[in-house]
Amino acid sequence: xxxxxxxxxxxxxxxxWNADGTKVDIGYxxxxxxxQAVQWISHFCTKYDYKIVVTSTWRIHSxxxxxxxxxxxxGLSKKVEVLDKTEYLHHDHITRGEEIYLWLKSHPxxxxxxIVDDDDDFEHTPYMRDHFIKTNFYDGFKATDFFAxxxxxxxxxxxxxxxxxxxxIRNDSSCRQ
Length: 177
Prior knowledge:
Layout: E1 2-6, E2 16-17, E3 23-24, H1 35-48, E4 50-54, H2 64-73, E5 82-85, H3 96-105, E6 112-117, E7 132-134, H4 143-163
Parallel strand pairs: 1-4, 1-6, 4-5, 6-7
Antiparallel strand pairs: 2-3
């Protein structure tokens, strides 16, 4: 199984401007604002068979089904499975990188993963940087991010083939447990 860990705000939910020059703020509850970004994510997940795990703060007060509906309402192809959400542990001073690490640890069938986020909080999980696409909060996920993610996907699978590994998850002792 291949997993895309997806943040919303600053990735697929961004500021945008109407034709009349009025700004539309982020923060819709039933859909994200950046349709183009959602289409790039959808295309990647469909092309390479990635499932989505939501890491956005939207997960705090939403069920997986509600998050799935937000993504589908935002234009995500229904061919893309919205699998799960990571547990919110930030109140325990756990970073998003550590939350992802714990999710991966409890799902040993993951053969590859990519993280898309506008915030880099991987100080306790630096090895995840090889799996990380950082977006700009104001622009969100763009075509250049898609091509970088596509390159990353191909590189990670190339490394796996060279190492003969069936699973690409490092057990890093620097990650808090």
